């Protein structure tokens, strides 16, 4: 064992003349540990939420949306579906979609929605809408019926706003232009039966969308043709590559025929906000470790004051200033690494067992710590990522190292004559 390690361990294990210094050392270790533990638990929960919401987005929405390059509509959508399915080996299925803005009315309740028209048979191969239906407006998840003739599927929160359940009748109000376009269009209402309630497990989708068949979407809008073609990929994370292949398709004049938008581009703002929130939370919680690092600085300063005589003796025996510097840096790192190691162990165990712990405290205080109906998750989503733990550990070690520099530097500059003058 090197000399610096040996002396640093002796200083840590030896009895203190001042018990207050020992208490501060223990608090420093505990502070680093608590900070690391909090970072691991919070980052694991936020990563779990990120992945759960991403999975919900991937399941409920198409992986790729193909649009006309000229901003119009697809008249022969069957040919487009066939061409999209053959554009890449990663395309698993494709289906047409029409989106109509409208109002739903039931009694005195009125709610604005985006009404998606779809080919029921093809859509089931592209999205998981069929598995997201319920026969009730409550919390059950049994399957309902996909929309048929004069039928509509409502988002979960849309149904709540309208006080509608499966079997209810709602009036669908949409704007439809007059024939020829010479006479201004007007809003027209059609009575439709609610055949299902869709639960996308994302509040924005559940509060904005309703679904009808492709034929009824054309009737509601008053025009033929579809707005886009949705595609499902064998791997959603190659959507960018498939989008480039579809954009490369040209017509006989050499102009692009299609534009393509990936599922990530459609939700870029949402996922960007999640990443920013995770980063901000990391910075905020890192201040816990920073406070503990200041404690390490104060601890080492008091140790240097307490060990002035020892430092003076070591210097007279020929120990150089840099070795004294290393000695106190190592002692501070021992404190920080001890807290970091403890925090990593406790934080990882807490993260893996967070749901049983939450249920335990919920039973004791009789308070739901996680509102599953609101979040649409059966339990708190947790994802322990080794790379997150690595960066948390590295951050704690770096902060600890920086906190040791000033007291170690002051110890290295101590004049042995001044240290032993009154001894």
Number of domains: 2
Tell me, rounded to a whole number, the average pLDDT. Answer: 81
Largest sheet: 6 strands, mixed, barrel
Number of strands: 10
Uncertain residue ranges: 135-143
Rg is 32 Å
Strand content: 15-25%
Listing every helix as H and every strand as E from the N terminus to the C terminus, the arrangement reads: HHEHEEHEEHEEHEHEHEHHHHHHHH
- The number of distinct helices, counting runs of at least 4 residues, comes to 16
Oligomer designation = single chain
Helix proportion:
40-55%
Shape by Cα distribution: elongated
Kindly report how far apart the N and C termini lie.
30 Å
**What class, by secondary structure content?**
alpha+beta
Spatial ordering of strands, largest sheet: 2-3-8-5-7-6
What are the salient characteristics of this protein?
16 helices, six-stranded mixed barrel, alpha+beta
Q: How does this model look, in words?
A:
Helix 2 crosses helix 12 and helix 12 (321-352) packs antiparallel against helix 15 (386-412). A hairpin with a 2-residue loop joins strand 2 (91-106) and strand 3 (109-118). The protein has 423 residues and is an alpha+beta fold. The protein has 16 helices and 10 strands. A 6-stranded mixed beta barrel has the order 2-3-8-5-7-6. Helix content is 54%, strand content 18%. The longest helix is centred in the N-terminal third of the chain and has 42 residues, at 19-60. The chain has 2 domains: 3-56 and 270-420, no CATH class; 62-263, no CATH class.
